[in-house]
Amino acid sequence: MLHYPRGPDASPIIVYVVVKKHSSSGMALAFIASSAASAIIENLVNMGFSYVGNHQAPRGMEEELQRLRQALPQIKAILGAVEGEQQMAERNEALEAWMWQFRDAVEEAEDVLDEVEYYEIEKRVQAPDDQVRGTISKLKRKISSFVSPSFRNDTLKRLSEAVKGLDRVAAGMGPCLQLVGGLSGYGVKRRQFDEIRNSRETSSFLLEKEVLGRKTESDKIIEWLIKPTSDEPESLATADISVFSIVGIGGMGKTTLAQLIYRNERVQQYFDQTMWVCVSDIFDAAVLTSKILQEMTKHSPNAQNLNTLQEMLIEKLISKRFLLVLDDVWNDDNRMEWEKFVAPLKFGRRGSKILLTTRMDSVADMVARVVECKKEYLKLEGLKESDYMLLFNKHAFANVDPNDHKNLQSIGKQIAEKFRGCPLVAKVMGGLLNSCMDYNYWKRMLSDNIVNLQQGVNGTMEVLKLSYHHLPTDLQLCFRHCSLFPQDHHFEGSELIYMWMGLGFVRQCGNQSPEDIGKEYLAQLTRKSFFDILYEDVYVMHDLLHDLAQSVSSKECLRRKGDSLRDISKTIRHVSIETTSSLLIREISCLKNLRTRTLILHIKKDRNRDIDHALILGHVLKELKSLRLLCITADYLCKLPDALDTLIHLRYLSFQPESDFNKNLPEWFSQSVCRLYHLQVLDIRFPPEMIWNIDKNSITEINGLSDLVNLRLLNVPHGLMTKIRWIGKLTSLQKLRNFHIRVESGYKIGELKDLAELSEIDVGNLENVRSSEEAVESKLNEKENLSSLSLNWSGGRSSAPEVDEQLLDNLRPHINLQTLSIEGYIGVRYPCWMTDFCLPNLTSIHLRCSRLEQFPPLGQLPLLRNLGLFNMAAIKRVDWSVYGSADGCAFPFLEKMTCFTMPAWEEWLTAADGCPFPQLKILNISDCPNLRGMPTLPLSLRELTIHNVGITAIPAMYRDNSNDNNSASSFELAPSLCIENSPSLPSIDGFLLQQQEYFQALRILSIERCERLVHLPPEWYANLFSLERLTIIKCPKLITCEIQDSNLPSAIQSLSFGLCGGLYASLLGRLPYLASLTSLTLHECAITTSLPEAEVFARLASLSRLQIWNCKELASFGGIEALASLKYLSVKRCDKLITVSLLQPPLGADVSQGGAVASSLRLDHLDIDQQSLLSMEPLRNLSSTRILTLAGSSQLTSLPEQWLLQNRSSLQCLIIRNAASLQSLPPSMTSLYSLQKLTLYWARSIQSLPEFPASLSSLTIGGCHPVLEERCQKDTGLDWPKIANIPHVTITKE
């Protein structure tokens, strides 16, 4: 990567380097984009001539500059040839060596240009404040506009060296010109293209007699293929084509699955004509049409003209229902070619289908748009474990008897588990293992990397590289850089984009911001299946693709975990290191001979040695002059090195301490950060517990951060953010969070004036704005990029409402605003600009305004999707004035509405025939005790929660015939109904009977603390076909109703009930019929004296979670041992059970009498509130528990040593929530050799610690005795040697 930023607004100059391995030697071929490289050279030449024209230049410099200018056309020719022929380029070591030399020279030139701009920025930043305000914008210009830059002596020297370096490399390019001339010859290209195409050509015939697995997938697609298009009569004149796409990364078996489906007898019988076409790289409508004709007629068509070919195809298809398989499709951007290709296919018979295989989700999107059909697709994942092992063993033990190699079977299973079900890897790896049935060889392959599985063109990496080579060069850069992170890493989308920006991977285009371009890069990589979305803005990469990233970046990127850095390639530019070793950190200095652009460093504290990593790192950073990106993560708080200011090229700085926080915040911050004038990202993240412990008063004002004029992202702790003066200088800033207004200069709201690029503003302490005129200075209405605005006033104020009202009127945002939050506003009226005319683009509004007496007219906002109302204590009535329409039709796209803590709200009115909220999916009404009724709601509702509301009936629902979401068949999400603490609700019969369509799709039903509820109709059970989670708690007046066995919802997975009148016994008696039950909670079951017998529990084969709370009369665990799948058991506040447990013999007594029998229970987690319960059968005989949680009490004076010891082989975590009476920890703690985590809260009586097992990695003791805290002081405490080797220790009096 080479990048020269010419100011925040200018397009960055990028030199792209693609690493590709020789098939034999594995060496990398680097190539550089012609336009980017020439731009850097031209800028360097222009700067050189500018200097020569105004100063006495070093001897020979002018001649070197002339030669460089003349050599540019030839350099472009070389770079263009290599860049354009990635797959077919001849692997030539001489060409590669020259390319790396050229890259080094261009990077040196880039650094010189960057350095000149740095000192220009420094000069202007250090000018007086009034001058800075007027000149910051002038910094955003191209370096080529410098007429006579002022050079420092060392910069001049580097300029001269950069010119000489480029001149030397240009002088040696002669042989390369000859090489690329041959590379671009037509004959060579054609021969190489044919080789690649032939190796990838597929047919409809399976290559193996038996296909293992994929039955579920093939059945699903076959059913789709032979399903009638509609219930309408079929027409021979017109056709509706449907498309199904099989999407998956290379090697997942997409083609094999398509072949399996294509050859299926039902498929062949259903379609009049079936055709198989391998598409591959070249998507040409004429070529593909010709292939289809050849497939149908078994002869090559004579015509080549597209129109003639299409007429021939229409003639063949016009009366036939056809299936067309398009295998290995890549084209996702040429819509016109797709439309030409699809045009004649529309003349086929109705019910014709296209089955398509592709690696890219974007192809599935494209074809669905072109064909104008619903996007139907299957994301093909790895094989199921059982099928995968069959396939793996088929190849690994081919032609041998597996029983003769039993020593290899277990290690083979471990090898197979690494590859996540990828069929291609199973075949390739199985074949490699089969070639040598030797244990040591198999053991070595277990530790080997999939990157080495390159068996020619069909090898794993070569297959995956096809996807990589289809990426644009920009995206290749971004993808390769991801190899610096471990497998299964969760990539934060915005963080990834800013990293790419800092490294110059994101190429500026027009007026579009680099953030938006980066988002498009990430979206493209996701659509092309290089990333999967885990959840919002979090991405993951499949292991095979991570291995691919490592393969193609092996000469650029290096990731080490505790290994030495010596003897690494000089081509390495990006480094990621995880270590506790100060020696390894010192070794980073060896990278000084490299042009390192990225350093990601995760430092783990060595508790055996007191090492100042910050001091060591400071010496190291002085050597890494070319660094652009620096990320430091530490499991303790170390000081940022003062040597940071030597990194004048740095664009991205991230610092993330994880624990051991020192409250004095300024101790870790270094003023050297304030001299990183190229910095675009400053990201300092503390864990939440560290942020809350910050002593705000210890933070002094941070001077100089406002000098970072190129900063685009400023993410620092809240306490530090409030101490940054003159933040208005940061005119490139994209987001401003935690900006708290003060009356002093440099902190006023006027600082927002020049921040025109902001997309997000979060401003607090608005009460410190002294006048309406001052508010106008913020120019919110001129910020056209602003999409999110949060306006906050402090609580507990007594000022007049008019003050806030006038202020808010003058904080009118731009019409483009999408998200608005107002909190702490004490005006009684809404601002004049809160209407659909002023804010037509709003999608989300949150209001927390305790004195607001009337809702703003939000109902006609055309795009509003999220409405949140909190603590609106003065609102009494909601009527049609809110809807903005007399007919009550309002909130056309609202999907989520939340109303919390509105104690005065009494009426919610709509027009009699109104249809508000037609798209509403989530409605949550809480703490509105005086609200007596609710409007009719749409059937689109997925989640309805009513908590502490005074309603006497659940609202009815209406059908919006214009909304496709209003049918039970359209319930894609789990409909949920939760009614809690509604004391005025006597019955829900009407709702249950009237809304049967809704109830048939209900997945979650929770009814709690409804004291007047007396009846549930018998029909209730028959209608809940889809119910998975049922909760009925504290409804004491419910009368008994008959529950027939056949009426119980068989799909119930979670059941919680208790204190529910006569319904309790009926539900308890029907437990045996709930075969799908995985979680059961018994709550306040006063009449229960024993859990069900073993015969009942044995039928609950899936039950894994059992909670028994506040069952006062429970005295026996019954047949709990019959719960074969039980993993979690919680027993709390069961008084009679505790009484019985105290009468049991002490733990260990049955062992001494020879009567102990191991329990059949295999609990993973036991959570109890009384230690004595461990004496009860079957808990006393547990021996494989992994987690024990004791709530603790005054009776817990010592730990249950005997029970802990009998579980020592499995026990990993011990938590005591109340250790107030615990006097000490037993010496036997050291025998718990599996223990990893020990946590004690309120341990105020423990004054010393025993020895701990070597396995312990986390020790937390909260609320401890002062003596213990002193004994655990680092190095000096008497107990320090006992805990020094534990990685994570927290011992505090708090």
TrEMBL record:
<dbReference type="InterPro" id="IPR032675">
    <property type="entry name" value="LRR_dom_sf"/>
</dbReference>
<keyword id="KW-0677">Repeat</keyword>
<dbReference type="Pfam" id="PF23559">
    <property type="entry name" value="WHD_DRP"/>
</dbReference>
<keyword id="KW-0547">Nucleotide-binding</keyword>
<keyword id="KW-0067">ATP-binding</keyword>
<feature type="domain" description="NB-ARC">
    <location>
        <begin position="217"/>
        <end position="399"/>
    </location>
</feature>
<dbReference type="GO" id="GO:0005524">
    <property type="term" value="F:ATP binding"/>
</dbReference>
<feature type="domain" description="Disease resistance protein winged helix">
    <location>
        <begin position="484"/>
        <end position="549"/>
    </location>
</feature>
<dbReference type="Pfam" id="PF00931">
    <property type="entry name" value="NB-ARC"/>
</dbReference>
<dbReference type="Pfam" id="PF18052">
    <property type="entry name" value="Rx_N"/>
</dbReference>
<keyword id="KW-0611">Plant defense</keyword>
<dbReference type="GO" id="GO:0051707">
    <property type="term" value="P:response to other organism"/>
</dbReference>
<dbReference type="InterPro" id="IPR036388">
    <property type="entry name" value="WH-like_DNA-bd_sf"/>
</dbReference>
<feature type="domain" description="R13L1/DRL21-like LRR repeat region">
    <location>
        <begin position="749"/>
        <end position="872"/>
    </location>
</feature>
<dbReference type="InterPro" id="IPR002182">
    <property type="entry name" value="NB-ARC"/>
</dbReference>
<protein>
    <submittedName>
        <fullName>Disease resistance protein RGA2-like isoform X1</fullName>
    </submittedName>
</protein>
<dbReference type="GO" id="GO:0006952">
    <property type="term" value="P:defense response"/>
</dbReference>
<dbReference type="InterPro" id="IPR027417">
    <property type="entry name" value="P-loop_NTPase"/>
</dbReference>
<dbReference type="Pfam" id="PF25019">
    <property type="entry name" value="LRR_R13L1-DRL21"/>
</dbReference>
<dbReference type="InterPro" id="IPR041118">
    <property type="entry name" value="Rx_N"/>
</dbReference>
<comment type="similarity">
    <text>Belongs to the disease resistance NB-LRR family.</text>
</comment>
<dbReference type="GO" id="GO:0043531">
    <property type="term" value="F:ADP binding"/>
</dbReference>
<keyword id="KW-0433">Leucine-rich repeat</keyword>
<dbReference type="InterPro" id="IPR056789">
    <property type="entry name" value="LRR_R13L1-DRL21"/>
</dbReference>
<feature type="domain" description="Disease resistance N-terminal">
    <location>
        <begin position="52"/>
        <end position="124"/>
    </location>
</feature>
<dbReference type="InterPro" id="IPR058922">
    <property type="entry name" value="WHD_DRP"/>
</dbReference>
